[in-house]
Amino acid sequence: MTTPEPADDDARTPPRVDARHAQGVQVNSGGGNTQINNFGTAGAAEVVWPVRVGGIPALASAFQYRSGPRTQIDTARRAGKNVVLTQVLSGGGGVGKSQLAARYATEAVKDGTDLVVWVNATRPDTVPAGLAEAAARIHVPGASGNDVEADARALLDWFATTDRSWLVVFDDVTNAYDVSAWWPTSPKQTGWVLATTRLRDAALSDGGRKLIDIDVYSQGESIEYLHARLTEAEQGHLVDDAAGEVADRLGRLPLALSHAAAYMINNAASCTRYLELFNAGPTNLDELMGGAVDGRQQRVSATLLLALRAADAEEPAGITTKVLRLAALLDPAGHPDALWASAPVLAHLGLPSQPATTSQAHAALRIAHRYALITHQPTAGPRAVRIHALTARAAREETPDQVQGQLANAAADALLELWPLAEGDAPTAESLRGNGMFLRDACDNHLWRADQDPHPIVFKIGDSLGNTGNASAAAAYFRELASHADRTLGSDHNATLIARHHEARWTGQAGGSLAARNLLLALLPDRERVSGGDHPATLFVASDLGRWIGWAGDAARARDFLLQLAPRYERVNGSDHPHTLTVRGELAFWIGLAGDPAQARDSFLDLTAAWNRLDTDDPRAINCHHALAFWTGQSGDPRRAMVIAARTVERRRQILGEEHRDTLRSRRDLARWTGDAGEPEKAREALDEILPTYERICGAHHLLVLNARLLLAHNIGRARHPHEARDMIAEDILPITAILDKSHHILAAANHARWTAEAGDIEPARSKLATLTAQLERLHGPTHPDVRALQSELTHWTTGAETDQRVIGGLTMI
């Protein structure tokens, strides 16, 4: 770096000094005590340039260049701006801000910058003290050594007028107000300021300062760091294929990676071994990352929670610790802002006799955000409050077990309070479910105790998976839950039996009808033995068993089983109880599928009247209207079915929302009855409108989407375009069903055969239908409703007879 010529007012040649006339004031700069001496005028030693003031941290081993942030810093610097390094992620300790600043300071010293000042800015007194020390070192005019603040202001004046090059680093600004009066300026653009902070105060960007977010490492930078650090220590062989996963588990936090690398080096542990130790728990985070790292005895927990003491001192005092401890039990990816206005959380934040107010909770969130312990972004919806994974782990390890138990139950209660009855908003459902899963993993011992039933949230998580379209994941979740309950609570514990019931239900919803039936056949005698034959839980298992007997292929047996069960429900609960009405609806459904759609229609007509007397907004009441429309159409009156379906669509829109899956199902069925009523073009338009929403919400391979596409093809064919219908099924549906359940592929292929026949190729279509019918019969048996639908289609193309049930009208559309 070229050193500019000194200006006339430059402090290049101070008077000679005599140490015998020295006076001093002791200050704290850069973390250590420094004696600043003011020498008398008897003479002064000449300043030897360049000058370095303050303790610039040594660069960490295997320091990463961080090209992205450096480009931003250099661009801002060229524009004449001072730079404040902050970070966008919560839990901001350890992202490498100080190391990046140290790199710039070290480079400035190496390049011959005239004055490099490193100031520890953690306390109000250290900033002017550091500047005063620099003023004394270069003998700034007006710096007497008797008044720290006056000397600091004298140095600011020097910065504003000098032609010498300079760099000032304010490291770890903990309060924007503490530095507000001490920002150097450089009208001649000979110097600049670099600051690091965990704060996000607007004041930090005043005066032309540029805030630059310092993120954690990318995965590539993380792996490069581990490789460089371990290779430097002649342990490069410890870097293996698990390096990327180690980086991800540590949140790619530079400080955490440095401690992890030290552990690997000191213990000859490979990345794979380190990952095993980290995942095993409950190893203390400091033990796993302990030891000296680059000569610094830094504990990860202390690094990440450094700002907590200061944050807790702000009003409302003492709440920030509670906020951090509770947030640490939730998903680091974020949770809804509304959680902090829930009754359980306000009770936790307040005193035993006086809950906190929503204003106090919001203020505490903002304090925690300002100190970068969390990230609070109210506009981020269901992910408005986030916390870094390692901040969370450190906070959990600092929380007493008894307190953590109270926190876990408060968090679980709050999540349940937020959980909507109808999970129409997918991002919200995903956030609540993710937070519930994280809470269960972090606090399983508090939510799942041998002396009581588990917290209801452990069941809500799995049901949410199924209710939002992932029945297979729900079944797997409850399978694991049932196994866990059996091991920890015993096979006859209520929680074990509940988990087994949910496993069976979602197994069936995922397409495993036979498996669901068999699971329920095994569960029912256990539930009767433990709870009694008339217990509500026993009756629920029995009604679900009736349903899955039917879906496993025996509609008549399901009907007969439910005919015997319905009177038990009525005797136990009464004739108009919702549970009784629900099982009567199940019975009516299987009466229809067993061959009497008119009786099913009449039964649902009676049931809708009964539900209307109870609660017209109950989802079960609306389901009953949906079923009434279906069986009205199946009974040969599609136009009347259209009217009922249209009313159902409006009710579901009002209660569940436009994009809830049940609303979309009702819209699909309305299109179906519109086509059956002789308006295929209108049905086609409705389905064209529905499908993009279906695909966005459910995914292109979801069965609801495939059914809607199949119905669209059906109405294209009905509108006298059989070739287009055939080709659409071949191109858009069969390639997807080929990788799904075999029975779904058979049904899609049967519909393709139908429209192949309608297009004029009757013989190959008939042969294909015969093959498909035999295949489906081997899967489900001869009485399964889908098998009967294929038999009807085959009969039509063999004899020319019109039958009651064709392929598209079978269970593929229910």
Automatic annotation (TrEMBL):
GO molecular-function terms, A-Z: ADP binding
Domain NB-ARC: 89-228
SUPFAM superfamilies, per the entry: P-loop containing nucleoside triphosphate hydrolases, TPR-like
Name of the protein described by the UniProt record: Tetratricopeptide repeat protein
Lineage of the organism: Bacteria, Bacillati, Actinomycetota, Actinomycetes, Micromonosporales
